[in-house]
Write a structure and sequence with these properties.
Blueprint: E1 7-9, E2 16-18, E3 27-29, E4 36-39, H1 45-68, E5 72-76, E6 79-83, H2 85-94, H3 98-127, H4 135-146, H5 151-165, E7 170-173, H6 175-193, H7 196-203, E8 219-223, E9 230-234, E10 239-240, E11 247-248, H8 255-275, E12 279-283, E13 286-290, H9 292-301, H10 305-334, H11 341-354, H12 359-371, E14 373-374, E15 378-382, H13 384-402, H14 406-416
Antiparallel strand pairs: 1-2, 3-4, 5-6, 5-7, 8-9, 10-11, 12-13, 12-15, 14-15
The protein binds zinc ion (2 copies).
One zinc ion binds near residues 224, 241 and 244.
Length: about 425
């Protein structure tokens, strides 16, 4: 039977609270900020590992198929072209866009591969009652890399590309398109199935965190930000989570400074990202550059309104809103404002969730460029604006990770004292 930690601190507001009742089928939320403290999956724990393991193996097979076969094939003016995902990465790499190549590789191939092989390495022995060497460290890596796996965003990018390409050529969806679709649902099912708390208990059965330390003077209780174990930290002393070996901090170190620096860097790069072309089309001796906004306007004018709205939201609204929210949070925390604490925490959770969707534009530009290479007729290239835009996406994601939402509530506690 799964045990649960009856005392926990909230990862979003820092409140120490006791979970007095754990619903068998439900979710426990923070009594102060509504953050999810504990989520239990629906399947019975004994069956869960076997079930998740089957999903992981299937997903790995699908990932291999998705990378071996082309995603899309196009036919235009007697030419036939096909693009695999790895071909897209190779295209970027050979066209001196190593940063974008690395980013596309990490978010679509590297992260899902590490995530799935890591889970296989941990779950396979657990299924037979054993623990693989370094299992906690591997699971820690899996949890870090999960936020960089963006298959659902890639799927949206592929669908947008199909619509855009069908104006230029005959588009034939290939086998990898369907396997990517399936893979996306499988990974979502795996993450939903996995009872992380239970798995941590199984791979680190002898961990004692709080008991041995809490009697020492000057200790503060906090949950490990990676494995969520309640640990005691002593101010000014470096300590590590006994379960996953992550460095423990009562609050993220230099959170405000790091977040401000990253948000400013993202804002500066946001200017070239919008002014420079993200896609360059060379056709019949003419060269035309498309910026993010001109691409959206073109789609709206040619009657693809739903697509124009999707791209407008993902590429223009999301980064702008995210930067505005980050600055709002930074300024209000800096001035120790007691204004709307719960709503500001919700805004923080929103910035964490939406940022990845801006990658859609990068995936569309890369796919179009990798496919349309008809020398002498039409060649599409990824513009330098896309590099700046990719950097904006990465920097805003890092800024959101650097921000510690508990700082919002710390000020209130000080006001009340
Ligand atoms: Zn909370
Ligand atoms: Zn930990």
């Amino acid at each position: 039977m799964t045990q649960f930690v009856p005392v926990t601190t909230c990862h979003d507001c820092g409140l120490l609270q006791k979970i007095s009742h754990m619903p068998e089928d439900g979710t426990v939320t923070c009594c102060r900020c509504d953050a999810t403290l504990r989520k239990r999956q629906r399947i019975k724990p004994a069956k869960s590992i076997e079930h998740t393991l089957a999903l992981v193996i299937t997903a790995l097979i699908l990932l291999v198929i998705s990378n071996v076969f082309p995603i899309l094939q196009i036919q235009a003016e007697g030419h036939e072209m096909a693009a695999t995902l790895f071909g897209c990465v190779k295209y970027l790499f050979t066209h001196k866009m190593q940063f974008l190549a690395g980013l596309v590789f990490l978010t679509t191939i590297g992260a899902p591969l590490i995530q799935l092989t890591g889970l296989l390495y941990i779950l396979l022995p657990v299924n037979f009652g054993r623990i693989s060497p370094y299992a906690p460290q591997v699971y820690r890596l899996v949890r870090i890399i999960t936020s960089w796996s963006m298959l659902e965003v890639l799927m949206l990018g592929i669908l947008v590309s199909v619509v855009k390409l069908s104006a230029l050529a005959t588009v034939v969806p290939s086998i990898a398109l369907w396997t990517f679709g399936l893979l996306m649902f499988l990974i979502a099912a795996i993450l939903n199935d996995l009872d992380t708390e239970m798995l941590w208990e199984q791979i680190t059965p002898k961990t004692q965190a709080v008991e041995e330390q809490k009697s020492k003077p000057g200790t503060q209780l906090t949950n490990c930000h990676n494995c969520n174990l309640l640990c005691a930290v002593i101010a000014g002393h470096e300590s590590f989570c006994p379960r996953c070996k992550t460095a423990l901090h009562f609050r993220k170190p230099n959170s405000l400074t790091r977040c401000t620096a990253l948000a400013i860097a993202a804002s500066v790069l946001y200017i070239p990202a919008n002014l420079l072309p993200v896609m360059v089309v060379r056709s019949m001796g003419q060269t035309e550059g498309d910026t993010i906004i001109s691409g959206v306007i073109y789609l709206a004018k040619t009657g693809d309104m739903p697509l124009a709205i999707i791209l407008f939201i993902a590429s223009i609204c999301v980064p702008t809103v995210k930067l505005l929210i980050l600055f709002l949070l930074l300024i209000t925390v800096y001035f120790k404002s007691p204004w709307r604490l719960r709503e500001r925490t919700r805004l923080y959770r929103l910035t964490e969730g939406i940022g990845r969707w801006s990658m859609v534009d990068i995936f569309v530009d890369t796919l179009m460029a990798a496919l349309i290479q008809i020398q002498g007729l039409m060649v599409i290239e990824v513009g330098v604006g896309a590099v700046a835009f990719g950097a904006v996406v990465v920097l805003t994601m890092l800024a959101a990770k650097a921000f510690d939402p508990r700082l919002i509530w710390d000020n209130m506690e000080r006001v009340n004292e």
